[in-house]
Amino acid sequence: MALAALVAGTLALLGGCTTAGYYAQSIGGHLDLMSKRKDIGSLVEDASTPPELKSKLERAKAIREYATEELALPDNGSYRSYVDVGKPYVTWNVVATPALSLTAKTWCFVVVGCVAYRGYFDESEARRYGEQLAAEGMDVAIAGARAYSTLGWFDDPILNTILFDSEYRFAGTLFHELAHQRLFVTGDTAFNESYAVAVEREGVRRWLARNGTPAMLEAYAVEHERQEGFLTLVLSTRDKLEALYASQMDDAMKVREKERLFGALRDGYAQLKASWGGYAGYDEWFANGLNNAKLALLTAYNVHVPAFERLLAEQHGDMGKFHQAAEALSRLSREERDAALARLAAEAS
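RE: above sequence
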């Protein structure tokens, strides 16, 4: 009975719905993943573990301990085991918006409240559902997820999908997912993701300051600069689209202007890419067309990050106090919380 209850909770975390087929793939995918977990300590000690894998797992252990000791993130059984899922993504999330809105469709569940995505273990099922939404006139984006989290309901494993990343990318992903286990507000995707991104960024900066080589520090600085350029470009387009959709222009004109703005975004990216010497790291995001759903997903992860970074500064960099301050925000009503985050963002600018 306890297992059944926990699995039911996990279905909600994964974006469950009331259809039997969806429940079946959620249960099957989750239980299959959990059954394949191998203790990292045992793998490190096993002489048959390949040297490269052993080295990566040793690094993962050190970063996992750092997360608890230095970033005040949960000290639990998550990310102390390993699974190779044999593919680049563990789940696929479907995001959808109306054709003339950046407000994402939400799916509501008992555990997490309403979330702006619906997750699948099977890519083909995610794409079929996306096609259904597109046939209804929605803008749809399907994004692969490389990390797995049940928000602490289970001892989540580290996956091959993230283990072989660069050290700072792996660390950032681990810090991000553990942040969700420290604080998660039901029904507020933007708050949850922006908080986790703020923890991720600060954690990576601190990890590299203590453990990074000059080459790693330089690589991170370059990547961070590119990321900021990309976000500035895309979020500027988001602001223009929001103004467009709120205007009194008729829908046909809005559609034409929407396409013009997306064309300008593509042109802006081409210029940005050229300034990077041809670095193509964001090409995949631009592939398969641009739409509102892609922007909505990106916005959720970044809209409140400056506010949380300001909140951390107010705590003089004390991570424990920062988490407590974020928890205090989480107890406010949605309207009060958004207003508080807006004030913090204004102070940060």
